[in-house]
Amino acid sequence: MDSITQLPPESSCRRCGKAADERLCAFCRVHPPEYDSAASWTLYDGAARSLLHLYKYRRVLPAGTWFAARLAPLLPASAELLVPVPLARGRQRERGFNQSELLARRLSRLTHLPYDATGLARRRETWTQAGLSREERERNVNGAFRVPEPRRIDGRSILLLDDVLTTGATAQACALALKAAGAAAVHLLTIARADLDFAGRTLAGFA
Predict the structure, then answer these.
(1) Which of 1, 24, 91, 110 is 20 to 30 A distant from 140 in Cα terms?
(2) How far, in Å, CA of 123 to CA of 207, rounded?
(3) Is residue 3 situated within a structural domain?
(4) What distance in Å separates the CA atoms of residue 112 and residue 153, rounded to the nearest whole number?
């Protein structure tokens, strides 16, 4: 998979993870997300997108181990607990597994960082986010997550794990629930991000 290019962390906003020439982008100075940092290994494009689709929809599960090895160096030093984004029950039944939970398990094994597969739960079912606008995504997941046992989250630095970051609506809703349960910090980590600004800058010289 030499065609998959890692995003350069030094060219990213440390808060939201978007392409930026400064440590904190202009948007995060005014409207920072609820999560405290965000990092992604690559763009949701080309070979990375194809491999993610094989992993999620074709059950090519060894890809989870391969992705975990790429994410391991990106773990923030302060992280104390891995918490995967929960999948809607209907989609988990259809798919047979939660790709983020499996990834958390593989990453925990590699890094010895503990993970809590049930740290977050769905309050209600949501529509798939694919094809929705930013505003629709935000409404779709608003209030959709809860922390079943806050004592397991309270005072801890949480590493929130998902496969793809698009608008950040899901991550924002998850981070809100974790912070409400007493999380000291929430750091977001994803395999890929679907971000047009990053895509343009990759073509301009990141690749």
Answers:
(1) 24
(2) 41
(3) no
(4) 18
Residue 140 belongs to some domain of the structure = yes
Residue 148: count other Cβ atoms within 10 Å of its Cβ.
12
Look up the domain containing 58 and give its range.
12-200
In this structure, are residues 68 and 85 in contact, taking their beta carbons and an 8 Å threshold? Answer: no
Task: Retrieve residue 111's tokens.
Answer: 């890094």
Contact between 145 and 169 (Cβ < 8 Å): no
**Res 125 pLDDT > 80:** no
- What distance lies between CA 56 and its chain's CA centroid? 15
**Structural domain includes residue 196:** yes
Share of the chain above pLDDT 70, in %: 83
Q: Return mean pLDDT, the chain.
A: 86
Q: How confident is the model at residue 23 (pLDDT cuts 50, 70, 90)?
A: confident
**Using CA atoms, how far apart are residues 188 and 181, in angstroms rounded to an integer?**
17
How far apart CA 148 and CA 28 sit, in angstroms, is 30
What per-residue string of b and e applies to 22-38 under the rule 16 or more CB within 10 Å gives b? eeebeebeeeebbbbbb
Domain count, the chain: 1
- In contact, 141 and 167? CB cutoff 8 Å: no
Q: Tokens 């991000």 label which residue? A: 193
Q: What is the CATH number of the domain that holds 160?
A: 3.40.50
Reported as a pLDDT band with limits 50, 70 and 90, residue 137 is: low
